[in-house]
Amino acid sequence: MKFTWFNLMPWPFLPENFRQTHRSVWVDIPNSLYDPRRGHFVYHQYMDQLEYADALGFDGIGVNEHHQNGYGLMPSPNLIAAGLARRTSRAAIAVIGNSIALYNPPIRVAEEFAMLDVLSGGRLLAGFPVGTSMDTNYCYGQIPALTREKYAEAHELILRAWTESEIFAFDGKYNQLRYVNCWPKPIQKPHPPIYIPGGGSIETWDFCLDHDYNYSYLSFGGYLRGRALLEGYWERVAARGKDESPYRAAFAQIIAVADTDADAERLYAEHILYFFNRCLHVYPGFADAPGYRTIKTIQSGALSQLSEDMQKVFTKLTWKDLVEGGYVIAGSPETVRQRMEEMIRGLRVGHVFCLFHSGNMPDEKTRHSTKLFAERVMPHLRELWPEWKGDARWWCKPMDERLRPEATLQSGEPS
Amino acid sequence: MNVRWIETARGAKVRVFEGGGGTPLVFLHGAGGLFAENPFLEPLARRYRIFAPELPGYGESTGETLLEDMLDFALHGWDVVAALDLERPHLLGHSMGGMIAAEMACLAPRDLGKLVLAAPLGLWIDDAPTPDLFALLPHEAAQVLFHEPAQGAALLTGGLDFRNLQALKEFYIGNVKRLGMAGKILFPIPNRRLAKRLYRLRAETLLVVGSSDRFVPAAYLRRWQELLPRAQLVQIEAAGHMLPYEQPDAFVGAVSRFLG
Q1: Domain containing B245 — which CATH number?
Q2: What is the CATH number of domain A2-402?
Q3: What is the pTM of this model?
Q4: Fewer Cβ in 10 A, N or C end of chain A?
Q5: pLDDT(B223) > 90
Q6: How many domains does one find in chain B?
Q7: CB pairs below 8 Å between A and B: how many?
């Protein structure tokens, strides 16, 4: 099993009555709620936590991209990843990812990801999300019905830029480039492992299987709700005649560990409820621009999505609902170990993106939960897929002789 | 009205409602498409030979992927006219259809009779942004589009019972198909630089708008008049953006007086 410590980087100072006084945490959230001077400390605290996770032995540390979003302060995850590359030397750096349809030209992503791979000594996991409708359509103005085609073209361009040895011309519908010449190129050959975060589009499954990319199901609905979706994915894997390595799939899960179950509620409930009640307050008009999802995906979807929006579900959630409903895996190390095992086996995933920091959780609590997991949970979950031991197709392959942070800190003398 | 199917030279399969006799008049619908009831078509058919084609993705017309940008939409309009074998028809476009009709008239200024722009889209004024059609919830849409929102909501949904989940899903999919297409020329801002081409327009033009249009504010009417100084103007009382549906008699009257 591979565990990646992930921080969404929420703004921890949303007002108590945010849900009543604002229509959305995303897209049109007033920027007066953001305070750059406090933001300075927030960024450093969150980056320190990611580095702490590396020190504790997590396999990866993860960041992602959102725009105009009160729970995701990384319009450019690459900037954060660059900082992490300098201060860590062991964990994979999972950038899940860059919304490649948003970059003009997307060669920019090929370049920046290559820079990160070189800087980190080959530790990059490269995520290529289509991007949520909020980010892609409403914040960045992409035409919904053309987003997927633009994404596909960006993907082709980036992969060719990474893998082709000669300079080439690219005559795309959205990008015309006379001289494609990726400088620098990534260390990992033919390219860093590619992760495709998805929310359940069936086209995305086929895209992952066509290229043997990891499919990362990212939702905040928890593992009980995730099961039906991942069952669909695994059926598709079988139908396509692919092997069933659990490392083909990743899942994001909110986790909170304390000494006892009661302690977990006492320490973490208010912060995780902050996340569900304030951070997930998204105006439904921004959820799904017409044309963003394909008709095929909508037709395969559950009708319940149309009749009740997720927000209403989240408003009414209590701590008990969150834990029993599997939105959150929380409790003593033993409770969490059992639930994690149930989740990992139930979903058949080899990668977990672990969300320990939630909402406005203070640093010390985040570290407490993280440390208990690293020391008393993670070691017991390592060998859940013995038949797939050594399947490293979706993991980074760093250089052995790479620089360590101590070295980069000491060699500052000009010669 | 009769239903007729045509295939354009580009390959789109288009359903056309047609009726009446006399001078040909092509009606181009708005982003919501034709409704179950279109109370202005029959009265227009008493004076003109009217054609109401549905864009690909609307109704049963197909070929959505053939149209990607404003030029495609405008050429598609002329492809439909050609497939119907019409000579210099009058063009009547409502809302997004007005934007398309105006583009058609700029592209081929000698190929039409008269032009009617009913609450047209296609311009943008930074200080007077139009509501984001693509982020409106159903109940908000009726508020913005109609003089009488309660009646408007019923028109928008065709009186469907949304407690019936299957009906809800079909409506939702239809809406996604329609607005997915409309987004190609209206998202995120309904401006594809029509303003810089309007100098080419030479057809006699009528602007007809609802006096309580909350979707396209009055500032846009002034802008249209600046850009088309010779255009005639009719404002219809007790009508919002969906004026052909809210005041069909007054609408047909204004159009008929102008077209003759």
Answers
A1: 3.40.50.1820
A2: 3.20.20.30
A3: 0.94
A4: C
A5: yes
A6: 1
A7: 69
